[in-house]
């Protein structure tokens, strides 16, 4: 069932509308998947927006309150900094198994349900959302984003399904995801799973990517180059995309936050940058 905000809030022509949807039962995931859906201002009143809005799918949807997402969206809409879109925030289940790369689990068998999660997104989530909410089915209007492991998942889904999505947003992505443990005795360049998938994958015209890292995301520096691993892993992935044919300036935006940490506070702070990139008026 869906639970709208109180009428006094939902009716505000400059405020977003939030609905909590517990009606989607997934067969591959064997669980009910809760969705928090944020509709743009004027939805209740049938404003001047198009009949079918662009849509952002967001992993770790349970974190919306910590991200302060509703206030961010209200502010951006009031500034007319973004065009109207629908946000579908997907609550995580067994995130260490459901998030990852669909092609393979990591060396510790984490991400063992990532293929099932991708199946859920493509065969259940997209049809459900398009049936029950006024969203566009055009890949050019569909965006997927996430944080940490959820960012890895979002990137993997977008990169491999350009017929369904056109943009990926990755906050502090877990691009360290690897096929064997790093022990310092060999070059790990070929062990990072997502990098290898990009190398073996195909260029798709129209795909664009947004990446964020924080200089305090972690402290590990496995190659002792003075740059933390999370930054190296992200910039190395960007290099793989460029070698694949994506333009570093046109197709990719990379934001590095000085002092940024691996938490919702940092991600909330940079969220307006991502949203204005993805949904520029």
UniProtKB/TrEMBL annotation:
It comes from the Bacteria. SUPFAM superfamilies: alpha/beta-Hydrolases. It holds the Pfam family Esterase. Gene3D superfamilies: alpha/beta hydrolase. This is Esterase family protein. It comes from Spirosoma sordidisoli.
């Amino acid at each position: 069932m869906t639970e709208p905000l109180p009428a006094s809030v939902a009716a505000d022509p400059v405020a977003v509308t939030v609905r909590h949807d517990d009606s989607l039962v997934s067969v591959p995931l064997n669980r009910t998947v809760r969705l928090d859906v944020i509709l743009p201002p004027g939805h209740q009143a049938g404003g001047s927006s198009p009949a079918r809005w662009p849509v952002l799918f967001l992993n770790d949807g349970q974190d919306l309150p910590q991200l302060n997402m509703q206030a961010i969206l209200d502010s951006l809409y009031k500034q007319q900094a973004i065009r109207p879109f629908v946000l579908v925030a997907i609550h995580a289940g067994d995130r260490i198994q459901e998030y990852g790369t669909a092609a393979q689990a990591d060396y510790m068998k984490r991400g063992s349900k990532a293929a099932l999660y991708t199946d859920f997104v493509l065969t259940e989530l997209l049809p459900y959302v398009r049936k029950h909410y006024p969203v566009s089915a055009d890949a050019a209007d569909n965006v997927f984003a996430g944080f940490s492991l959820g960012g890895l998942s979002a990137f993997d889904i977008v990169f491999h399904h350009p017929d369904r999505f056109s943009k990926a947003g990755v906050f502090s992505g877990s691009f360290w995801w690897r096929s064997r443990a790093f022990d310092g005795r060999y070059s790990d360049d070929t062990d990072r799973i997502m990098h290898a998938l990009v190398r073996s994958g195909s260029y798709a015209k129209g795909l664009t990517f947004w990446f964020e890292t924080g200089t305090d995301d972690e402290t590990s520096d496995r190659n002792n180059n003075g740059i933390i691993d999370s930054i190296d892993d992200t910039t190395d992935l960007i290099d793989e995309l460029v070698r694949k044919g994506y333009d570093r300036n046109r197709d990719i935006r990379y934001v590095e936050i000085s002092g940024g940490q691996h938490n919702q506070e940092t991600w909330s702070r940079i969220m307006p940058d991502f949203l204005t990139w993805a949904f520029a008026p």
